[in-house]
Protein: BioF2-like acetyltransferase domain-containing protein
Organism: Novosphingobium pentaromativorans US6-1
Amino acid sequence: MNAPFAPTRAQVRLADLADPGEVARLEGYVAAHPQATPFHRPAWFVATARATGNRAFALVQERHGEIVAFLPLSAIHSPIFGNMLASSGFAIGGGLLADDGAEPAEVLRAAEELALRLSCPTIELRGGALPDAGQGWVLKSESHCNFARPLAADDEAELLTVPRKQRAEVRKSLANDLTVEIGTSERDRAAHYAVFAESYRNLGTPVFPRGLLDAVVDAFGEDADILTVRHEGRPLASVITVYHRGAAMPYWGGGTREARRLRANDRMYFELMLHARRRGCTAFDFGRSKTGSGAYHFKRNWGFEPEALTYASWTAPGARAREADPASAKLSLQIALWQKLPLGIANRLGPLIARGIG
């Protein structure tokens, strides 16, 4: 009598991110997976880790030589906020991608073991296939929402999709003496970073190193660009956008204090919607915002409906949970102090701190 067939157990291993063939294989898996985001791409998590001095890892689960699950990870080390593995680092999405027949629990167990080896007592999964709560894992679904909707058929229809009050602000911005530039040249990057750094200081947030932003623009190539709104040659508002599966995803944006008076931010996002459609996009993904925040209400004013996001976090036995929530009492005081720093000092100190926020 023949022995009963025993299915081959899926194996979990660390991918070799120094091997171009392995990286290309991961890019192909992400391109084909229906739940993948741009933050799953090695173009994102490898580039951001390299630019911030952190380390990138990728866990893959294979059966019969084929990838059936994939978890990108960034090892973030910070003397201020503590150490963690993030999927994905410096992103609003990521998490575990798993096919039918995968064993997600085995991948997560390997992630826990990796975190302990790297002295990272915390893991954050930003979307993807999530574990059940328990055994160190906590699910959180009330803290952030995402905002996305289809793009309209033409420029006028796009304007009419904006609710009346916000539409009036957009019309005023169109009447102002503002110019729009789109590209990825040094002029575009320098203008963006100047605006972005001032905006972050005004929000009380340490600014990311410019190398991080440049690394993403370089890695994404034609799938990223920078849109800048100027007044009399001065940049007032600017945003880096990545493009993924027909969706425009504005990611790192900001405006100066003068931008509000001239409504440059309103012009920026409306022009980006028009630009996205012209380059073939069918959807506009405004990204996530903290529930109830100013950015949350700003996006609702544009006619976008919030969709609650669920994240998962793991804390090693006996360790304290990582504290990087800007709404906490401890960090709110630090934010208030940061807002008072001279811009030059904030721009020098910010990147040293922000590379550890993740």
